Amino acid sequence: MKIEFKDLGNIESFYSGFSEDYDSELNERTEDSGPREINLKKIDNIFFGGIDYRDYPDFCDVFVKSADMNGHPMTDEELDDLNENYNEWVHDQFTDSCNNAIYRNQF
Question: Quick one: 99 exposed, middle or buried, by C-beta within 10 A (0-12, 13-18, 19+)?
Fold first, then answer.
């Protein structure tokens, strides 16, 4: 069996269209795509910031300062999305961590 290769011309011109197509498709998906979906069940190792004890029990300024998702540190963009779009979840996690800390120290 004989395999023949056709002349594809300049390899750079052959691949040049791929990059532009991918970049434009990526920009279309990320520009106005709205909030990113975050799987909250895969977030752990959470550290909080903005804790003001004078604001008890509301703690309305609490935010996730750092966390891991899928075993890797979350990026600043992911943390921003988490704090902006899942604020109620963040507050619940903070409240739960405070309650757990109180429970462990009492018994």
Answer: exposed
CA 67 to chain centre: 10
Q: What residues does 66 pair with on adjacent strands?
A: 47
For helices 87-106 and 76-85, give the axis angle rounded to 10 degrees: 90
Strand, coil or helix: what is 66?
strand
Give the global pTM.
Answer: 0.64
Q: Where are the domains of the chain?
A: 41-106
Closest CA to 35 of 74, 78, 98: 78
Query: Which mean pLDDT values do the consecutive 10-residue runs of the chain (107 residues) have?
Result: 52 50 47 72 96 90 96 95 95 93 74
| Strand spans (E) along the chain | 43-49, 63-69, 72-73
